[in-house]
Write a structure and sequence with these properties.
Blueprint lengths: L5 H9 L4 H19 L4 H19 L5 H17 L14 H16 L6 H18 L8 H22 L5 H18 L2
């Protein structure tokens, strides 16, 4: 049973009485949902995958109780199902779910390249990227390499302008990773 079917999944979990077994059941189903949707928002889902692993490891090592692990798994399940991260998104992204994914990728890739970017600056860049993708899309764009290339060029121009305006030392490898990951996310989430 999928975690997305709240009622049916709740009935299935309620049939199990042992807190550890419930926690394991929830963890396994959430992992499956993460695996199925990983490419839609890789940073978001990776974070929750790591939280699941840590919680289960802590439960087995008896660093947390089975009930605490169960509560944690239920919270993780709800956040994955409803796509709510633990941290609040910057105000510029409150109603822009796909842009939140771009935001996560930007922050991750900047960090991997040894650069710190503050939340509001990253949110502004993610919103601009979202606008560029929305402005360049057309019917069946996900199968149209020319449209995807136009999107990449527009995003790349925005990244170079951002680099110059903020004095970041973005190398071509980081830019290429950003372009690929952003377009992958957009292909899965933007109609």
């Amino acid at each position: 049973m999928s975690i997305l079917n709240k009622d049916a999944f709740a009935r299935e979990v309620s049939a199990v009485h042992d807190p550890e077994a419930k926690a394991e059941m929830i963890a396994n189903r959430v992992r499956r949902a993460i695996h199925e949707h990983l490419e839609e928002d890789p940073v978001f889902y990776k974070r929750f995958s790591e939280l699941i692993d840590k919680t289960i490891t802590d439960m087995h090592a008896q660093r947390i109780s089975e009930l605490d692990a169960l509560k944690s798994m239920e919270d993780i399940r709800d956040r994955v199902r409803d796509r709510h991260a633990y941290e609040d998104a910057p105000l510029a992204l409150k109603n822009r779910d796909v842009a939140k994914s771009y935001y996560d990728v930007l922050r991750e890739q900047f960090s991997n390249a040894g650069m710190q970017i503050d939340e509001e600056t990253a949110a502004g860049l993610a919103a601009k990227i979202d606008d560029l993708i929305l402005a360049n899309r057309k019917i069946d764009w996900t199968d149209d390499v020319d449209v995807q290339n136009r999107m990449k060029i527009a995003i790349e121009d925005e990244l170079f302008a951002f680099k110059d305006a903020h004095g970041f030392d973005l190398n071509f490898e980081t830019i290429d990773r950003l372009l690929d990951r952003i377009i992958d996310i957009a292909r899965r989430r933007v109609q």
